[in-house]
Design a protein that fits this description.
Layout (H helix, E strand, L loop, with lengths): L1 E5 L3 H10 L4 E5 L16 E2 L8 H11 L6 H20 L28 E2 L6 H14 L4 E3 L2 E9 L2 E9 L2 E6 L2 E4 L20 H8 L4 E2 L4 E8 L9 H5 L3 E3 L19 H15 L3 E4 L5 H7 L1 H9 L9 E10 L2 E3 L11 E3 L4 E2 L12 H21 L14 E3 H7 L17 H5 L3 H8 L12 H11 L6 H12 L11 H22 L22 E4 L54
Parallel strand pairs: 1-2, 1-9, 2-5, 9-16, 15-17, 18-19
Antiparallel strand pairs: 3-4, 6-7, 7-8, 10-15, 10-19, 11-14, 12-13, 13-14
Bound molecules: flavin-adenine dinucleotide (FAD).
Length: 601
């Protein structure tokens, strides 16, 4: 079986390793192999492996953080299978820190916000992501998996409703890679915001390609803002584990303002801390500071060597002085909707890691659960692909859906779910699906805003300003409507010879539309999505909002896709096949399951 994996973070690398050498596996990654969110992860990986801890306790903490939107079955899978996946990592060479630096002792498990147990395993102090990424890279390099670095995935190829490959750009040349299964492991969307802890590769390319191909996305409005990034250019993350070890937040007057905000003070859920910091900054016009001085210089250096080095680089001596911090976009709970095996609504297309929406995180990710989610669901997706390969028909199985969903266009059409009072529901454009696709003009006309009919190209900086202001930590209907109308007037056509940077910005623009539309439709506050005009959670909204672009916007019919290689002979030979997609037996493949059949409002 030929499998092409997009991305070389933890999710992509683990998928490849779990598939094993019996399959023809290629990883495509747009930068160097290690460049990813994964390699910057600091705090660690949550798993119930310490004496006294239980899977049930980890499940309970995850469900609380998810604010009523986590899928209990997915959370159970995550927490129950986590310990086995930690053992895999150890087998692949990850050396988790032990107590007293004694290799025979138990793990030196840390505590992070909203966890009720010390269960965060870390490696190299605060260099967990680096240690994990490089252990996996070494294991992949020792395997038969091929890796195509500096290769940009532009679009999915969908044939007869099934994913059959990818169009990629390598050295400026467009190629088509065919595959029996395509695995998106392309990470998140941090670059949609001006302040983000994410590296430059996080431009949502995989999610945008899936949207164009007609896949169902879910929970896109839920973006987690980390409360404590260093308030300097680059928004370097100061892990929650620092607060877990005793650091406190102070306002300009030196007061611990979180004490009055939440019973857990600095260890309250991330959204609570991020909003409190943003409000405090708005109120005083001054930055807030993180005071880690009580931890002591030696312990800070031992436990947080990476952050210590970054603080020094920016001229701070954090062992002796508080450092300025501010919220920054950090993690996307939304993504391509999957079932518990990583299958998406497009047969043959899998999604794992941050690009996916498995239902685990709900409205808010519990700290250190994302590396775990990548490990657990990459493993399951690999098992599903192996089982498809072993099936007599050879055809990909259909997904079993993400439970408890309502499509965005249904909210737009019907106003709001039964029971929710909403004066603003008429603010949604009637043709919301067109808004997500390419038909900007149609939407602008129906939205009734004359200025929005003017289509022009935005810069990345303009997109940043709009998203930070209107779809950031604090949101409200007025700002989101303004954002929607502005976005409706922006377009970024992608010609066959468009640069990678332009393609990335176009992908971000497409996802911005989806995020703003869903955020406008969700007339409540839940988890990371805070609406100042609807400050409470509303029970009728306790479901995932799904978005799906009209099928005319698929890669096949879109000008934006690079011209596929005319024949395998005329392109740089690629390890994965560049020949036209082989005709696969499709007799047994029914149309993708309709998510609207699964609605339970
Ligand atoms: C600073 C920081 C600290 C964090 N700390 C923690 C933590 O302590 N614990 C925790 O659980 N989580 C943490 N996270 C979150 C966690 O790191 C990520 O959610 C996780 O690593 C995602 O893994 P992934 O494999 O899905 O995506 P990534 O690791 O982001 O990998 C995505 C890959 O896809 C590639 N790619 C993207 N687009 C394309 C394209 N068009 N073509 C080809 N390739 C493409 C990228 O180059 C990259 O290789 C942290 C994140 C950051 C940024």
């Amino acid at each position: 079986m030929r499998v092409v994996i997009v991305g070389s973070g933890v999710a992509g690398l683990v998928t490849a390793l779990a598939l094993g050498d019996r399959h023809d596996v290629t990883i495509v990654t747009k930068s160097t192999i290690d460049e990813s969110n994964t390699r910057y992860a600091q705090g660690g990986i949550a798993a119930a492996v310490m004496p006294g801890d239980t899977v049930d306790s980890h499940v309970a903490d995850t469900l609380v953080a998810g604010a009523g939107l986590s899928d209990p079955a997915a959370v159970q899978v995550l927490c129950a299978e986590g310990p086995a996946r930690i053992r895999d990592l150890i087998r692949w060479g990850v050396d988790f820190d032990r107590q007293h630096d004694d290799p025979a002792a138990d793990f030196d498990a840390g505590l992070e916000g909203a966890h009720s147990f010390h269960r965060i395993l870390h490696a190299g102090g605060d260099a967990t992501g680096y240690e994990v990424e490089w252990a996996l890279v070494r294991a992949v390099r020792a395997s038969a998996t091929r890796v195509l670095e500096q290769t940009f995935v532009a679009d999915l190829v969908v044939t007869d409703g099934c994913a059959t490959g990818l169009t990629v750009l390598r050295d400026g040349i467009a190629e088509t890679l065919t595959a029996d299964a395509v695995v998106l492991a392309s990470g998140g969307i941090g670059q949609l915001y001006p302040h983000t802890t994410n590296p430059s590769v996080t431009t949502g390319d995989g999610a945008a390609a899936a949207l164009r191909a007609g896949a169902v996305l879910a929970d896109v409005e839920f973006v987690q803002f980390h409360p404590t990034a260093l308030a300097v250019s680059g928004s370097f993350l100061v892990s929650e584990a620092v607060r877990g070890d005793g650091a406190v937040l102070r306002n300009a007057s030196g007061e611990r303002f979180m004490v009055g905000e939440h019973p857990l003070a600095e260890l309250a859920p991330r959204d609570v801390v991020a909003r409190a910091i943003a409000s405090e900054m708005a109120r005083t016009g001054k930055p807030v500071v993180l005071d880690a001085t009580a931890i002591g210089a030696a312990e800070l250096e031992r436990r947080f060597p990476t952050i210590s080095a970054a603080a020094r680089e920016h001229g701070f001596d954090w062992a002796h002085e508080p450092v300025p911090v501010a919220p920054a976009a950090h993690y996307w709970m939304g993504g391509v909707a999957t079932d518990l095996d990583g299958r998406t609504s497009i047969p043959g297309l899998f999604a794992v890691g941050e690009v996916s929406c498995t239902g685990v995180h709900g409205a808010n990710r519990l700290a250190s659960n994302s590396l775990l989610e990548s490990l657990v669901f990459a493993h399951r997706a690999a098992a599903a692909i192996r089982s498809d390969a072993a099936a007599p028909s050879g055809a990909p199985r259909l997904w079993s859906g993400l439970p408890n969903t309502v499509p965005l266009e249904r909210l737009a059409r019907a106003g709001v779910p039964a029971g929710a009072e909403s004066p603003e529901s008429d603010g949604m454009p009637a043709t919301v699906t067109a808004f997500l696709g390419d038909s900007v003009t149609t939407v602008a006309t129906e939205a009734g805003d004359a200025s929005a009919r003017v289509t022009r190209e935005p810069s990345r900086a303009e997109l940043h300003t709009l998203m930070w202001r209107d779809a950031g930590v604090h949101r409200d209907a007025a700002g989101l409507r303004e954002a929607r109308d502005t976005l409706a007037g922006w377009d970024l056509p992608v010609a066959a010879d468009a640069s990678i940077q332009r393609r990335e910005t176009a992908n971000l623009l497409q996802l911005a539309r989806a995020i703003v539309a869903a955020a406008l439709a969700r007339e409540e506050s839940r988890g990371a999505h805070f609406r100042a005009d609807h400050p409470d959670a509303e029970p009728p909204f306790a479901h995932h909002i799904t978005v799906q672009a009209p099928l005319h916007a698929t890669s096949a019919g879109r000008d934006a896709a690079p011209a596929p290689a005319p024949s395998s002979a005329s392109v740089t030979p690629a390890p994965a096949s560049v020949a036209p997609a082989p005709a696969r037996a499709r007799a047994s493949v029914a149309p993708a399951a309709n998510p609207t059949e699964k609605v339970t409002v």
